[in-house]
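Lab notebook: predicted structure, single chain.

Context: the supervisor wants predicted structures on file for every construct in the current expression panel, including those that have not yet been purified. This is the next one on the list. No modifications to the sequence; it matches the entry in the shared construct table.
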Amino acid sequence: MDYITLTLSRREGTEPESIPVTSLYEVLQALPDRRRSQGKRYSLALILCLVVLAKLAGEKTMSGATEWIRHRGAPLAQRFELRRAAMPSQATYSNVLALVDGTRLDELLRAFFVRWEAQSRCADEPSRLQTSGQSK
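Prediction complete. Output recorded below exactly as produced.
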């Protein structure tokens, strides 16, 4: 099972719970979006995924992350299947991050990256990749 940071297509005819969570984007969709619907152009999962990608690329500030994302707007828009290449502004990132449950986000990211690391170290050895109540 490959772990990636971009969207995976859901298999038709399966329930979302039966699909292994292998995408950072899918993991971030578990966070509740507390923003109003009016004027919302980008999903919470997309915004958070973009910030995580910028952080993984070494950006340390929100302005640096915003610029990193903006310079890669076209390829990111294509990979995330967005209708346009325009990326969120720095104010959007700041406003969204202020509303996110940081504890829950930390739990989700920690679990994702621990599992990703386990996959890289253990290959397909199922006994090491299983978590409580979840099978491969």
